[in-house]
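Box 3.1 A note on notation
Throughout this textbook, protein chains are presented in two layers. The first layer is the amino acid sequence; the second is a token string describing backbone geometry. Keep the layers aligned when reading.
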Amino acid sequence: MIPPLITTDLTYYWQKREMRDVFSEQERDHYMTMGEIGQIRKDIERESIRLDPNDAKSTRIWVETLQSEGNFVRYKDKLDRPPEGSNLAEDVFFLCIQMKFQREAFQRLGNAFLGVDATHNCTQYEGILLFTMMVQDHWGKGM
């Protein structure tokens, strides 16, 4: 059970302080550690992020939700056929997201330079590449 006082909108320090203020010294929750608070906060976040126990279904729900809100999303599951002319492998996973505010900032503040960086194995799934794209604004600063 997740204690109802733990939220993700307070710092760990204030969260611990609030727990000590609410619970007496005779109650276990008075002595919660930062690590315990952190684990509970992760559980709370996981409930709002993982929309289905099956990761593929959860991802598809996120894709549909983001697209319905007007965000740019391109998605190819490992089981989907690659788009014609894309030269993507049959079994590749591809997910590209550009939120509306990112697209607006790109169009308004800088659309002449696009830098790309990639890293790998940053999730529980081996071989998944994470690409980060950055643009420069009109003053040469990254955004």
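The chain has four helices and four strands. The mean pLDDT is 83.
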